[in-house]
Amino acid sequence: MSCVIWWIRRDLRLGDNHALHTALASGATVVPVFIMDPHRLQFPAAKRQAFLMAGLRQLDASLRERGSRLIIRQGNPLDELRALCYATQATAIFAEEAYSPYARRRDADVAGQLPLRLMPGLTVQHPATLVKANGTPYTTFGPFMRAWKSRSLPTPADLLPMPARLPAVPPDLLSRELPDANPPAGFPAGEREAQRRLQAFTDGPQAGIHAYHNRRNVLVDGATSELSPYLRFGMISPRQAVIAAHRVQSFAGDGHASSGADAWLDELIWREFYHALLFHFPETMQEALRADRRSIAWINNEDDFTAWCDGRTGYPIVDAAMHQLVYTGWLPNRARLIVASFLVKDLLVDWRWGARRFMEHLIDGDAAANTGGWQWTAGTGGDAAPYFRVFNPILQAQTFDPGGLYIRRWLPELQRVPKRFIHKPWTMPVDVQREANCIIGHDYPAPIIDHEMARQRALAAYRRVEGQGSSQG
């Protein structure tokens, strides 16, 4: 029997998978292959790699339940695929299209020498098709969202079924062993877990999606899906998430639940917007999308950057979030905004430094979302935050962690600090510091910078470049 290769990259699922579905429709034996690319493995992202490896183990188990198995190879993708095509006499390679600059170069190299066929699936709407009437890409979210919503939304009938059985892989085809890896606590890997989370978030009268618009920014036990790592590695398809949001909208009418579903759908569209930006402007991984913001005079003080990385800035909400990032590999979106604003605006450290730090730790680390999010906060990218938006870390904490529960969870040294001082512990009288067993400057640092001074400094730095050169889009 003839063979075809299903080249798995960031689509670790059997359900609603265009590449797998098309490969099976060919009638040939499908060989599922994941290639451990040295280019991808060279970056220090231990938690993300552990989540990926655990996901591959789950995928292999699902394949074996259906009579197949996962083939693991390591090396240059073109070389490994060429060898596999020779060993199996494969007539085609099916893969889900990816949009990052590296992925597009890699796929072009492979397609130039091997029968590679790229399938949709990374986004609901392909970035090449969602453009303005004049053919240019959108660089602001509002018009992009309206254009996205004007398209026909996917329905349950569009979802591709999970195969009940798969053809057996040739027994003599060699596969490497997957390295041992434990995914970060709180994030079991795999398609089943992704489906469970989606159902828990969207099904039933108490589902988190109903309160999402009101509680998504609450830092302790907020109403978020925590599906971003699963979307990142395609353990669930974005179509499945969009269909779930639309189902809640349809049954909720104009009430409270509908508002939550509307807000969550908008966040899914933000994901598509960032993928579109990277697709059309690949250079934005290295430079600002807005030309007039490419000459901001960043200070880039390395001691300040180290204090931010280590969660030792003296601002509890910032430090708590940076501790959560390091320990869990994940952050709620509000925490990401707070720490990013503090780095680029309060400390005037280049957004690219922060983007690299996030990619070192986030299990949902994705080039498009990470670049887009950091450029938004820095005021340098698509639909960027206005330069005068500088988050006040104290007000942010008081608003989204009013009782200090989030801060106490991630900063045990502040556990006994009275509630009235939890957001500004440096204002504690010395006797209160002793009672709380938290001496400022010893047990917990004093603020490394005065926020109001830093805000004025940032505004001045941005004003100096405002309007210089031509703005993109």
Descriptive labels:
473 residues, 6% strand, Serine Threonine Protein Phosphatase 5, Tetratricopeptide repeat, 5-stranded parallel sheet, alpha/beta, 20 helices, 5 strands, single chain, DNA Cyclobutane Dipyrimidine Photolyase, subunit A, domain 3, Rossmann fold
Number of helices: 20
Any idea what the shape is? Answer: globular
Give the fraction of residues assigned to helices.
40-55%
Total number of domains: 3
Indicate the CATH topology of the largest domain. Answer: DNA Cyclobutane Dipyrimidine Photolyase, subunit A, domain 3
Pattern of helices and strands? EHEHHEHEHEHHHHHHHHHHHHHHH
Rg calc:
24 Å
For the record, the CATH architecture of the largest domain stands as Orthogonal Bundle
The largest sheet, given as strand count, sense and whether it forms a barrel, is: 5 strands, parallel
* N-C termini distance: 52 Å
Give the structural class.
alpha/beta
Number of strands: 5
Q: CATH homologous superfamily of the largest domain - what is it? A: DNA Cyclobutane Dipyrimidine Photolyase, subunit A, domain 3
Sheet with most strands: strand arrangement: 3-2-1-4-5
Low-confidence stretches: none
Provide mean pLDDT, rounded.
95
* CATH level 1 class label of the largest domain: Mainly Alpha
**Strand share of the residues?**
5-15%
